[in-house]
Every structure is written in C-alpha cells, then in structure tokens.
Write a structure and sequence with these properties.
Helix content: 25-40%
Number of helices: 5
Radius of gyration: 44 Å
Largest sheet: none
Strand content: under 5%
Distance between the termini: 104 Å
Shape: elongated
Order of helices and strands: HHHHH
Oligomer: single chain
Number of strands: 0
Length: 170
C-alpha cells in the first residue's frame, strides 16, 4: 500500500520542482532617485556653526573628558563595562582608540634609565667574559704538523714540479 502511494506522489514532486526562470528573476528600481538637492541650510539645532573661539577642539561642542588611559583605572571598581572599565553614559574621549583597553599597553615596569643600565650591565658582562676566555685560551692545541720533502713542495706543485697544461699551450 505504501509503495503504491509513493509511486503516485513521485511524479508530483518532480513537476513541482520546475519553476520558470522569469518568476525568479525580477528587476527592481530605486524609487525617488535622483534625489533633489537641498536648498535650505542645515538645521542649526543639530548642526551648529561654531567658530574656533566657541569650540576650540572643533568637535561640535562635545564635552571631551580628561585623557586617562583605561589601563590605569581600578580593575576591581564597580564599572558598568568591566572589560573597558567605563560606566554607562560616561563621555568618551575623542582619542578613545588610543586610551581604551584594546590599545597597546604602556610598559611602566622598568623606567628607560634603569633599562639602559641593565643593557649596559649585560654588554659589559659579555665582553668581560670574552676577555677572560681570550686571556686563558691556549694559542695552539697541538704541535704544528711537519711533512717530509720540504713540506710536500713537490707533491703540492712547488717550483720544481712539471706545470700543468694551460690554455696558452694550444
């Protein structure tokens, strides 16, 4: 019985999968384009025209807090955002990308003077050790080797040996 129902339903499934291409592909256009240019000036409530005397930072009158790196804030304080160490509604400095927690951290563990002193101590120690090794290192580990027949002069092509053929001999 089930096989008979399956045989009847199979042609219906194949016919339903064929969808004409024109039903899928439709074109649409943006309504209201091109837009008309705005002739009236921008609303001064939202876009105030502030000069340099009124707005020295030229940031639209935004309250710019004192620059404080979030790295130096109390990590155990009651912050609304514990990772960024800031509270809800707190104004953000305009250099937040530099002052935030995801910026490179300031290395304050060693001062530059102490770091240069440590590097100088390291270089002095290395060169001192090299000097001690140079002073106590033996000159030659063994006696120089000697060869018979005037130091193998004939075997190595000395003055009394027959010369090899060169390109000028042709």
């Amino acid at each position: 019985m089930f096989a008979r129902q399956l045989a009847v339903a199979r042609p219906l499934v194949q016919r339903a999968s064929i969808v004409p291409l024109s039903a899928i592909q439709t074109r649409s256009y943006m309504v209201g384009f091109p837009r008309k240019p705005i002739a009236e000036p921008l609303d001064p409530v939202y876009y105030p025209s502030l000069n340099d005397a009124v707005d020295p930072g030229q940031n639209g009158g935004y309250v710019n807090p004192a620059p404080e790196k979030r790295q130096f804030r109390d990590p155990y304080g009651e912050w609304w955002d514990k990772q960024e160490r800031r509270n809800f509604g707190e104004p953000v400095h305009e250099d937040n990308d530099i002052l935030g927690r995801f910026s490179p951290e300031d290395y304050t563990w060693v001062s530059p003077a102490k770091g240069l002193f440590q590097i100088g101590c390291f270089v002095t120690t290395v060169f001192g050790l090299l000097g001690v090794v140079y002073m106590f290192y033996p000159d030659m580990p063994a006696v120089p080797r000697t060869f018979p027949h005037n130091g193998l002069e004939k075997a190595l092509g000395g003055p009394g040996v027959l010369k090899a053929r060169s390109s000028d001999d042709e």
